[in-house]
Amino acid sequence: MFHDLDEDTQRLLKEHGNATGWQAMAVEIADSAQGFVDSAIVEMVALQASRCQELTTEDVLDTVNSRAEITLGQGNDDTDCVSFMDGRSQVLLYRREKCMATPPDEREPVRPTAFQPKCIVVLLTYESRKAAMQSLLLAGRRLTDPVLVKLNITTTTSTNPDFVVASTQCALSTVLQMNYVRDLTNRQDETALVNAQKAVDAKTRQRDVYLRALRGLRVYDGGDELNAKISDFKARLAHLEDELVQLQKRVDELGARSTACTSSATNTCGRSSLEAPNPWVAENGEHCLGYNTKETLEGMFCSRWDSPFNIHAADSEEQHELSTDSLPFCFSAAGDGSVLSCYPFASTSVRSGDLEIKVCQELKCTHTIQMHTLPPPLTFHPSVALVRSSNV
Questions:
Q1: Cα distances (Å, whole numbers) of residue 161 to 13, 49, 288
Q2: Helix (H) or strand (E) segment spanning residue 205
Q3: Packing angle between helix 187-218 and helix 224-260, nearest 10 degrees?
Q4: Please, what sign has the CA dihedral across residues 18, 21, 27, 30?
Q5: What is the distance between the alpha carbons of residues 53 and 174, in angstroms, rounded to a whole number?
Q6: pLDDT confidence of 96, banded at 50, 70, 90?
Q7: pLDDT digits (tens, 9 = 90+) for 288-301
Q8: CB atoms within 10 A of CB 27
Q9: Core vs surface per residue 44-74: b (16+ CB within 10 A) or e
Q10: 183/187 Cα distance (integer angstroms)
Q11: What value does the mean pLDDT of the chain take?
Q12: How many CB atoms lie within 10 A of CB 158?
């Protein structure tokens, strides 16, 4: 099924006053008006760069509309698979795994379209229109109810938007945000452990003060009054020792809980605040220029902007430079052009290549948008062996 988006786009741009274009990131199939689960009958949803109004025999020279950018059974060995024209189409949902190694699913974010979508194409699970009609009638679904497709979109605001740049920026931003949320897993335990250790240190200092005072009192040969004071100090010291033991137990428990977590494809342990800080927050806590909008253009978030490589992707000479002189930074959200220093050992600006794959596996990077931001060989085969040869 083809649906031309010209009228929808005009309405959308009117509703969003400063919008100059839009890009789709995810799709959801809504239930029909009578409550029929239409998601069960949709196999594929995609967008294309050309309009798709139905043409007549008189429109053979039409260069605006096309139904050849997304086709079924052309260009593939399997005639059941859909063909997508590179640069002119974007898959949002595809449930036939034999046709695509990492097919996106419903509500799963994908890399935004690198073009202004002008047509939406929907493929149902039925072999023919006749089969669809018979099956839907048998199930009791009204044929007059449309299939409702909801799109999760982002809008451009530039007068002449570059959709390729906007797509890349939005994809990177989405990955950074998704990974940061996963990094926060167990972060409360880390904070609790730090606070518990601070409590132990404070209680230890307090205990030591009483211990020194008690040792000083013992050097005097006093009467009943001094002996009573010494007894009070001993009782208070014993109480402090008991409190210190309980606090240390709490530290040990929290420490054991953090070390007991093992990251895997099915378990996310998160990372410390030093290893995985907010990408849009500088080392001193100030916000980077892209903090509010989550933009990922140069200087908008913390990264090693002086080099195209992270530390683990650089040669030994550049690794030294990146670790000493070319430290990560971002521009201040104040908009005055000032530069803010970022955490030098944040893993997002250090790891690369096979380490990135390991982290991706630990963070459960199963979403298509995460897989497609890895080097090309990893788009469909995320193995360590493949990425070691393209350590970027």
A1: 14, 15, 23
A2: helix 187-218
A3: 160
A4: positive
A5: 33
A6: confident
A7: 999 998 999 999 99
A8: 24
A9: bbbbbbbbbbeeeeeeeeeeebbbebbbeee
A10: 8
A11: 82
A12: 11
Are 99 and 59 spatial neighbours (Cβ–Cβ below 8 Å)? no
Which of these ranges, 101-115, 167-181, 313-327, has the smallest mean pLDDT?
313-327
Domain spans, the chain: 2-161, 187-260, 269-392
Separation of alpha carbons 65 and 45, rounded Å: 18
CA distance 5 to 2: 10
Q: Are 38 and 45 in contact (CB under 8 A)?
A: no
- Going by the DSSP 8-state scheme, the letter that residue 222 receives in this structure is -
Task: Look at residue 220 and tell me whether its pLDDT is greater than 90.
Answer: no
Task: Render pLDDT for 353-381 as a digit per residue (tens, 0 to 9).
Answer: 555 666 665 554 545 555 444 444 333 33
Return the pLDDT at 35: 92
Segment (H or E) for 329: strand 329-331
pLDDT of the residue at 221: 58
Identify the band that residue 263 occupies on the pLDDT scale cut at 50, 70 and 90.
Answer: low
Judged by DSSP in three states, 24 sits in strand
Widest pairwise Cα distance in the chain: 119
| Beta carbons within 8 Å of 72's beta carbon, 6+ residues apart | 79, 80, 81, 82, 83, 123
pLDDT for res 383: 41
Chain centroid, CA 373 distance in Å: 11
Tell me, what DSSP letter sits at residue 375? -
pLDDT at position 373 is 46
**Tokens 């007549």 correspond to what residue?**
56
Rounded to a whole number, what is the distance in angstroms from the first to the last CA of the chain? 41
∠ CA(105), CA(97), CA(74), 5° rounding? Answer: 105
Exposure of 44 in the CB half-sphere (CA atoms within 13 A): 24
